[in-house]
Amino acid sequence: MLDRLQSFFQSLTQSAPQQPAFAPDDPRIAVAALCLQVMEADGVVHQAERVKLRSLLREQYALDEEAVDALLAQSSVAESEAVDYYRFTSDLKRSLDESQRTQLVGILWDIVYADGARSEMEDHAIWRIADLLGVSGRDRVHERQEAEARAGLEGGDDAG
Questions:
Q1: Would you tell me how many other CB atoms lie within 10 Å of the CB of residue 19?
Q2: Angle in degrees, 0-180, between the axes of helices 27-40 and 98-112, rounded to the nearest 10
Q3: Cα–Cα separations (whole angstroms), residue 46 to 5, 111, 132, 143
Q4: How far apart, in Å, are the Cα atoms of 31 and each of 10, 65, 95, 100, 153?
Q5: What is the model's pLDDT at position 24?
Q6: Domains annotated on the chain, with CATH
Q7: Do the beta carbons of residue 112 and residue 38 sit within 8 Å?
Q8: Neighbours of 155 (CB within 10 A)
Q9: Contact (Cβ atoms closer than 8 angstroms) between residue 95 and residue 25
Q10: HEC profile for the chain?
Q11: CB of 12 within 8 A of CB of 27?
Q12: Per residue in 116-156, pLDDT tens?
């Protein structure tokens, strides 16, 4: 799983220098904002989800704690100003290839399963995000099943 996440995030930042301040159009802000929206979808943000997101950002973007704080702060502001997922998915759809968009959906499922369960609202959020990113239903379900396996959970129903 870490290899997959690492390759995804490295592909986003191969030429970008790491710094505590992020440009407003930095794709990492859109990725983190979508993660925040998925975390909040069920109305409860679990500590395990926060820890997973911070760890993911720190390790995969090679950021120190100060930079993670800055990225999350900027992403939180962007997320709170957004009226829907389109603001972030439209930028990411232009800047990511099909494989990267599918990997992003898998990462969102990893965030969902950080607390050991998924809710109907989280399903819906990822369905909408995947649809806006142009990720097929088949790939979305496959990524969900892979995330369940990575989290050590038994596969539930095959819907959604």
A1: 11
A2: 40
A3: 21, 10, 26, 21
A4: 13, 18, 12, 11, 25
A5: 85
A6: 2-11+25-150 (1.10.3680.10)
A7: yes
A8: 9
A9: no
A10: CHHHHHHHHHHHHCCCCCCCCCCCCCHHHHHHHHHHHHHHCCCCCCHHHHHHHHHHHHHHCCCCHHHHHHHHHHHHHHHHHCCCCHHHHHHHHHHCCHHHHHHHHHHHHHHHHHHCCCCHHHHHHHHHHHHHHCCCHHHHHHHHHHHHHHCCCCCCCCCC
A11: yes
A12: 989 999 999 999 999 999 999 999 999 999 999 999 886 55
Token digits for 82?
């957004």
Predicted TM-score (pTM) of the model is: 0.82
Structure tokens at 153: 């959970």
User: What are the structure tokens assigned to 141, written together?
Assistant: 């379900």
